[in-house]
Design goal:
137 residues; alpha+beta; 4-stranded antiparallel beta sheet; 2 helices; 8 strands; globular
Length: 137
């Protein structure tokens, strides 16, 4: 191996360590969707911190099989609410999922609303929340 190859590998490694993951896009895991029992509503709130409109895609899995996928648009400096059951055009949305975008200006929040009790729980879907959500669920 010559010195050029060694230096190239070192430069690539340094670039990977310096460039933040957000530069490659934005994604979040949806740890649980409650199904259609009529007890819980599940909403995904997406906020766009950029003046440009951005697209994001929601993919839902049940037992490892993709059951729904849909792309949405959020206006620049706006936000949108997605009903994970009604807005995904699927017969029975349950399981878990993933939300992705090429824009790193989007922030995701997952909302669980109790229909009979009226309570609401919200979770940020970002890198800092993954371990915490996995630990508590």
């Amino acid at each position: 191996m010559n010195i050029f190859t060694t230096r190239l590998k070192i430069m690539v490694l340094v670039a990977c360590l310096i460039i933040p993951a957000a530069a490659f896009g934005n994604e979040g895991n949806i740890p649980h969707i409650t199904g259609n029992a009529g007890v819980w509503n599940n909403y995904l709130q997406v906020a766009n911190n950029s003046p440009d409109a951005a697209e994001f895609t929601v993919v839902i899995y049940d037992a490892g099989i993709m059951t729904a996928e849909k792309t949405f648009t959020v206006a620049g400096l706006g936000d949108t609410f997605i009903d994970l059951k009604a807005d995904l055009d699927a017969d029975n949305v349950k399981g878990s999922g993933r939300v992705t975008s090429e824009s790193n200006a989007l922030n995701y929040r997952l909302n669980y609303e109790s229909i009979p009790g009226g309570g609401l729980a919200q979770f940020m879907l970002n890198d800092e929340a993954y371990n915490t959500l996995a630990f508590y669920f």
